[in-house]
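Workshop exercise sheet. Pairs work together: one partner reads the sequence aloud, the other fills in the structure field after running the prediction. Swap roles for the next sheet.
Pair: D.N. / O.F.
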Amino acid sequence: MNLQFLYRNAKGETKEYEVANWVEAGHYIDGYSLTSRAFRTFRKDRVLEYLHGGSSLLVDPFTPAPPKILRTKAPAHDPNVPQIAFTGFGKDHRAALEQQAATMGLRVVKSVTQSLTFLCTGGNAGPKKVAKAKAQRVYILTEPQLDVLLETGELPDDCWD
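Structure field:
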């Protein structure tokens, strides 16, 4: 069953969305937006109203905003620190991106691990690594989307463009 709701994005724009093949994932709803004709991730705290009884389809339809990413370096062993991996970048560029992510408080890992949160992909990203990450419901980001994430601490609304 499709999920329909009224949503206000980070820019303050309000729009009605219809999402198919959706999954409830903590603070987010992931699914194929029939409105945008692309896979999208929506923050539940930005849903203004669920339409046609949609709130009854969710386990927890009204959640507070997700926690912001820490701006200080956390211990590497802390299981609550989001993990990020990079693929498809040249060695020097990858090292710079890894340093930037680590400085912003993310734990950088070299492969798609069980607890990976984000995978940042470059032009030469391996399809097997990306497919494995997608199967684990990892957020796939491009470099510009990573910049938005690190700057604001939020997943961009256009995370799947």
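Discussion prompt: The CA atoms of residues 88 and 127 lie 10 Å apart. What would you look at next?
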